[in-house]
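Protocol step 4 of 5: obtain the predicted structure for the target chain.
Materials: sequence only (see below). No template structures provided, no constraints applied. The aim of this step is simply to have a reference model before the mutagenesis design in step 5. Sequence pasted as it appears in the construct record:
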Amino acid sequence: MRFSKKLSWERINLLDRLYTLEHKLHDSIRSTPSQNTRTLNKLNKWLDQIDFILKRIDTIKRRVIPKLEKNLEIKLRDNEQVFIALFQPSTRNLFLEMKIHFENDDSLSDDYFDVLTTLSDRAELLALIGDAAISLSVIHYIWPPEETNAGSMTLKRAEIVSNEHMSSICDNWELYEHRIHFDPDAPSASEMNHDKGTLLEAIYGIIYLNHGYDKTRKLVQQII
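Step 4 output (structure tokens):
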């Protein structure tokens, strides 16, 4: 098996896809007879949700990304990755429903909605990369151990990378309040801390993809 020296990440042109859907929905609403209230209600609901996503992305671009770049003192080279990192699983149903509605639209590629339904999965991939990079970086900072005992090292690392600890950093960076989601209910404290930890990990996954391990390890000092 051959290993690439650098992990690759393919752009999905997220904003273009969302703007296309926005235009499609406007066209569909105009062409739907007024008596078809059920269809119109559905189309308007989707349009509201797409508009919410676009407005949230605009806020992320104007507020969250500059804050991240200032705190981390780096340039986040691909804004799209940050947008994706903040997508939550509750957005999936929107795109699954729209996929069914527009399944006979030849102007949309076969995988058009498949890319959008996997946005939260892509966010989890970023978090997976970030989790691994953070864990290894923390080992470097707490090495050598006071005791030659793997258990004590594990406990010390766990304290640093705990969701409770990382959630405070997430709050400082305003990630949680700007996540892209349609969750109806307030989560429990443990669920919220888990989500915050995952969001923070996703940002470090982006740093690793764009700046490599050495830079990521240096920036892990932000959470120690």
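Step 4 remarks: The chain has a mean pLDDT of 93. The domain at 14-223 is CATH 1.10.1520.10 (Ribonuclease iii, N-terminal Endonuclease Domain; Chain A).
Proceed to step 5.
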